Structures are given as structure tokens and as C-alpha cells.
Amino acid sequence: MKELSIQACVANVIEQAQGVVSLELHRPDNTPLPPFSPGAHIDVHLPNGLIRQYSLYNSDYDGERYKIAVLLEPQGRGGSKAVHDMIRAGDTVEISGPRNHFPLVEADHSILLAGGIGITPIYCMAQALSRKAKSFELHYCCRSASKAAFVNDIKESDLTDFSQFYFDDDQTDPVFDIESILLQSPNNSHLYVCGPKGYIDYVINAATKLGWPKDRIHFEFFSAPGHAATDEGNEFYLQLARSEKHYFVPKNKTALQVLLENGHDIPVSCEQGVCGSCATKVLAGEPEHNDVFLTDSERASNAVFTPCCSRSLSPELVLDL
After folding, report:
1. Which parts of the sequence belong to the FAD-binding FR-type domain (predicted)?
2. Positive or negative torsion for Cα 52, 220, 307, 253
């Protein structure tokens, strides 16, 4: 099925915090956009030709607009810089419909944990839970209040009574003690965490140590933690079953690069194993999964792999291409 493409107007660009801007997007005729659920993201086609994924932070009850927030990463791959330097109010950008790999599930109680810009999907979740009068708590960690988006919005809303902030440069703030938070939570609570890899790892390790089952721990990375530099990868071959082509993948290239260089039309978006756009069916061989898109069961089945970042543990992979 062809991916939904939407031409969206940029209603405004607002500085939400130091290094963080938000964009409000709507259709030119202001008709409703496709509905989304908390935790969803959209693809944004940027003026420099890159495609990046950004979580929606506004209420899913707000059907006429999408709101995203983008942290400037000077050492990044160019996506955030394009948003900050090239997109202005009044511009038109191409976006996708919403997708959700980080959904809320029904639970007696939800613990929402955000690290830095990881607040974007978490903020949307908190608004949804509050509107439905569901039990939840929000914990927001950031290096500094000046770099934390939406703090005033949260404090001035119904969320304030359920929220706690932790800023590294403020000695008056409480210390973020994840074990205490988890130990004090009601039975059968569900945990949601988004932010930098180190923050997510810290939370997941603490929950696992305390015996939390995997199905009650939900997380979303902004990039695949297993996405190693291509010059560290192993060599392998790709056999394309339908086209009967055979290619060598050297250490310094990804499988996706080899496929694109040889004229194969593979959907490309994040190039980090996050979005799943390039996921390709495997007919034989054992992939080395470096993505964060596939579930544990999908990885175990070895039926699909992401050629943008994953490689092969076997000498050859046979793909359904």
C-alpha cells in the first residue's frame, strides 16, 4: 500500500526551550488530519531532502493540527538543523500520516518517564490519560530547566498535580530515584520511557532488576542503539530471489546502500532502524538485527530485517526482492 502523503502548512514555529522549536502543522484548507493515538509520530520531508520522524506532542483529541518539537543537534545528521534553519511559518512541507510503535495500553496506573526531548510523546500520553481521568504520574528529567520544553505548559495545566521535574543544575529539585518510583507504584502498573539511550537503559535496567515483566515496560528510542558504524560491520552477500541478483556487502557499506547503488527501489526514511520503512522480507539466512523497530518475536523469527542498519550473521542473506 502506498504511504499517505499530506501537504501541510506550517502555522507557526515557536521556541519552546533553549535549542528546541515546535512546529504546528495543518492542512491548507484546515480540514481534519488523519487521527492519531498517543505515542504516534509522523515523517517530515525536510527542505534539504532528508526525511525524519518526529513524535506528536499535542492532544490526540485535537484533530485539525499536528504539533512536533525538534531539538537542535549540531553534531547530528542534518535533520534537526534543517528544521531550525530552513523551516519558517507559512512554509509548506510534505508529511506522512501518523504511525505508532509506542502506544498506550489499558492499565490501572501508568508511569510516564521523559528524558530531555523524550517529553514529546510522553506529553501527549499525559494529556490523554488526564482527559480520560486515568491514574498516572509524569516524571520529567532534563539537564536544565532552560532546555526543558513544555515545563510551563505542564505546570499551568491539569497535569501539574501528577508531575515531578528533575533538573541537573537545580540543587533544590529532588533526585531522580527510579527504584523508589517503581517500588511505590501500584501493582500491575505500566512503565513508559522515552529519551536518550543512557536514560532509557538506566530505567529499563532498574525495572528489570526489580522483576518487572517485559510486557509492562514500554520505550521508544530516537535512534537505534545497535546502529554501529558501517566500517565495524562484517562482510556478507545478498541474494535477491525474485530478480536473481547477487551482491557483496563490504564492511564499509550497509545493505541498503548496496541495494540503492544497484538500482533497487527500497523505501528510505530514518536510515537508523527506527521507522521500519526499509524493512525487507528474508527468505534464508540469519540477520544481525541492529534496529529498534522490530519486536523481539519478529527478530527471533528472522523473517524480516532492516537493511539500513542491520547486517548478517550468516555468509549470505536471501531477500524477497
Report:
1. 3-105
2. positive
